[in-house]
Specification:
Blueprint (H helix, E strand, L loop, with lengths): L1 H12 L2 E4 L4 E2 L1 H15 L2 E2 L1 E2 L2 E6 L8 E6 L12 E6 L2 E5 L19 E4 L4 E9 L6 E8 L10 E2 L2 E2 L8 E8 L23 E9 L11 E4 L3 E5 L9 E6 L7 H9 L2 E6 L5 E7 L2 H17 L1
Parallel strand pairs: 3-16, 5-11, 9-12, 14-18
Antiparallel strand pairs: 1-2, 1-19, 4-15, 5-8, 6-7, 8-13, 9-10, 10-11, 14-15, 16-17, 17-18, 19-20
Bound molecules: 2-acetamido-2-deoxy-beta-D-glucopyranose (NAG) (5 copies).
The site of one 2-acetamido-2-deoxy-beta-D-glucopyranose (NAG) has 2 residues, from loops.
Length: 303
């Protein structure tokens, strides 16, 4: 079932579920269950979607320090299979959105003079920034790493380094999805066709990934640290792995609402992209509904 889940999750996120009394079930609820499942079954890995270059000025440009990254949050230190090796080298990449020219109290990313922890590796401190001609776009960040790990910064960032000096990281394609419609229930609208979310799909053609993702095959699913859960897309090939985001890590759904959902007995209706009712059936809980959706998706892929 897990395999099917990872294959079909993307389509599931395009669905909207409503009760027969027309009250909406937030897609957040469905996503809550998906996250619960994937938290247990999807190993952690690292991808930087919008890379900005960081040069570690106090590390020799020929050095490669292999650090242990966790595949599972609860990995025991004596369980080697729960870790994977990643190289830390003098040229690495962080998310563009994790750097700001102006620091502030509530900001945990990198800024001039500020330190952050590169997860599983070292704290780094930004010592210099090279800006483009517009004086705002960041070309390159210079930083020093604290190899004794004495600094304890609040912010923790994900990162991908050059696997060896002068070699670019693995490039992967990543497709991000958001809800297909802007309103919660497009069926309520007179003109639901005018409601699609313009940001429902974003394709990033060249994200940087750790090398272990080169061997990802269809059916594999991962948590990209800080970014969400992703499944390997059928378009993937040996030259370029392709991943679809199933859900982000954000969890807007509280335990209180969950209890309510479990108690409620109702009829579920599933709407597709085209707003066709695919099924309308009496189900007693969300687990059943999700199982039903998965079976349905299986039959779709067999067509
Ligand atoms: C990934 O997204 C593409 C659309 O960009 C879609 O055609 C494909 O079915 C999705 N793959 C999975 C595994 O959901
Ligand atoms: C994910 O699973 C770990 C145990 O492996 C648990 O400690 C953590 O709270 C879970 N995270 C979420 C968001 O459920
Ligand atoms: C950063 O701070 C400077 C000076 O305080 C200000 O002029 C500038 O607009 C700020 N930039 C951003 C992106 O907030
Ligand atoms: C490393 O630095 C040396 C001296 O600055 C330079 O000659 C060499 O080309 C650099 N190597 C790489 C892989 O960038
Ligand atoms: C929900 O449905 C599943 C599958 O039929 C069942 O195993 C589970 O016990 C049900 N949970 C609740 C809270 O009724």
């Amino acid at each position: 079932m897990h395999c099917v889940l990872s294959l079909l999750f993307k389509k599931v996120t395009l669905l909207v579920i409503v009760y027969s009394d027309n009250s909406m079930i937030h897609i957040d609820r469905l996503e809550y269950y998906i996250r619960e499942e994937l938290n247990k079954t999807a190993p952690r890995t690292t991808v930087v979607l919008h890379p900005v270059k960081v040069v570690i000025t106090n590390l020799d440009n020929e050095s490669i320090i292999n650090v242990d990254a966790k595949k599972w949050p609860a990995a025991l230190s004596n369980d080697g299979s729960s870790y994977y090796k990643v190289p830390f080298t003098s040229i690495l990449y962080i998310e563009r959105s994790d750097f700001r020219k102006n620091d502030s109290k509530d900001y945990y990313g990198l800024a001039p003079g500020k330190s952050v922890l590169l997860r599983y590796a070292f704290p780094i401190k930004c010592t210099d920034v090279i800006y483009g001609d517009d004086e705002n776009s960041v070309i390159e960040i210079h930083a020093e790493y604290d190899f004794l790990k004495k600094t304890k910064p609040k912010g923790v960032l994900h990162w991908v380094a050059q696997p060896s000096p002068g070699v670019e990281p693995l490039k992967v394609e990543v497709r991000l999805f958001e809800k297909l419609f802007l309103s919660e229930n497009p069926a309520e609208l007179e003109d639901w066709l005018s409601d699609p979310n313009p940001n429902s799909k974003e394709v990033i053609h060249e994200a940087y990934a750790v090398l272990s993702l080169a061997s990802a095959v269809l059916g594999d699913k991962y948590q990209f640290e800080r970014l969400g859960y992703f499944a390997v897309d059928p378009d993937t090939n040996s030259e370029k792995p392709v991943f679809n985001r199933t859900v982000t890590l954000r969890d807007a759904y509280s335990k209180g609402n969950l209890a309510l959902l479990k108690r409620k007995e109702s009829r579920w209706v599933v709407w597709t992209e085209k707003n066709n009712i695919i099924f309308s059936t009496k189900l007693f809980n969300a687990t059943q509904a999700i199982e039903r959706i998965i079976r349905l998706m299986e039959s779709w892929t067999q067509l």
